[in-house]
Amino acid sequence: MKLKRGVLLLVAAFVVSPLALGMGIILLIAATDDRNISGGPGLSAASLRVGKGFVPAEYAGLIEEAAGRCNAGLPAAVLAAQLMQESGFNPTAQSKDPATGDPIADGIAQFIPSTWATAGVDGNGDGRKDVWDPEDAIPAQGQMMCKLLTSAKKHPEYNGSPIELALAGYNAGWPRVEQYKGVPPASFADGQTYNYVRTIMANVARLTAPDTSGDPRTSGGWGRPVNGPLGTPYHQQGGAWQSGYHTGVDFLVPTGTSVHAIGPGKVVAAGPGGAYGNQIVIRHPDGTYSQYAHLSKVSVSVGDSVSGGQTIGLSGATGNAFGPHLHFEIRTGPEYGSDISPLPYLRRKGIDI
């Protein structure tokens, strides 16, 4: 674990907060029809990118199983990105106080001993709760993160998506999230928690296996823009957006994932779009517009007619983006500020999402 100070803050937070001791994590919001998006079918089970430089094969199953047990919709790639950041997937990793040399946190998930005493689990059923055993530590991490995510979903007014809030709570303690009503700013703890959240979120898409099926999942000429898990929801509040809230929905997909037109229409914008990076806007026969942003490649031109499911570009991280993903909007007009809720719109087109 590189964020030593963040670990110490976590200890303090758990001491003062019995709730936090049992609560373990970014992107879910309950309540409205399209805000419970991170808990949608298939998100937690989204395939991990396995191999050198990504998720070690021996841990992929454990991570996906731990995520799949969370009813709140915890993406497996979030757990994987945490393990990469915490220990580099090293089950023998141990963080030490640089001043005294005393141990601080242990194992692949870097549990503090006092936290492990209450949050540790016997994941493999051998009668022991062993922080050094990934078969125990990864399920414990998943359980803790799930509880944090459940707490985060109750605060759509906080600055940050639920997964970001949960990650911040894991790193600095949930009371710090409550104190700042969101992810602590860069001025807190020398930016350790702020950067921890940014780093993990940037790696979530990288550790999610790219879609290679070529199937845009169309239904009657209409389908998903990408095959990938949902991320930051519509109207999530926060200072990262000019309007004070998120004007679309995000899909957590790696750079280079095929992006499809959701339905037939004509391209009205294709190219640089300021904070949106490389974007495409399509006008559909019903008079609405769909936007696809932060693209790494644009494969259509203004004036082109497209069909539902047609590949129009590749996802990326251009413009104002923490990491690779597809930002998707539905609008009543072609310009910024005319957005409407995307998921109910897609469902009305017969798309299961």
Can you put this structure into words, describing what you see?
The protein is α+β, with helices and mostly antiparallel strands and 353 residues long. Helices cover 31% and strands 15% of the residues. It is built from ten helices and 14 strands. Strands 5, 7, 8, 9, 11, 13 and 14 form a seven-stranded antiparallel β-sheet that branches. A three-stranded antiparallel β-sheet has the order 6-12-10, with no helix packed on it. Strand 13 and strand 14 form a beta hairpin. Helix 3 packs parallel to helix 6, helix 6 crosses helix 7 and helix 7 crosses helix 8. The longest helix has 19 residues. The radius of gyration is 20 Å and the shape is elongated. The two termini are 36 Å apart.
Radius of gyration: 20 Å
The share of residues in extended strands comes to: 15-25%
Structural class based on helices, strands and sheet pairing: alpha+beta
Summarize model confidence as the mean pLDDT: 81
What is the 3D shape? elongated
- Poorly predicted segments: 1-46
Task: Report the span from N to C terminus.
Answer: 36 Å
Q: Output the number of helix runs.
A: 10
| Percentage of residues in helical conformation | 25-40%
Helix and strand sequence? HHHHEEHHHHHEEEEEEEEEEEEH
Please describe the biggest sheet, giving its number of strands, its sense, and whether it closes into a barrel: 7 strands, antiparallel
What is the strand tally? Answer: 14
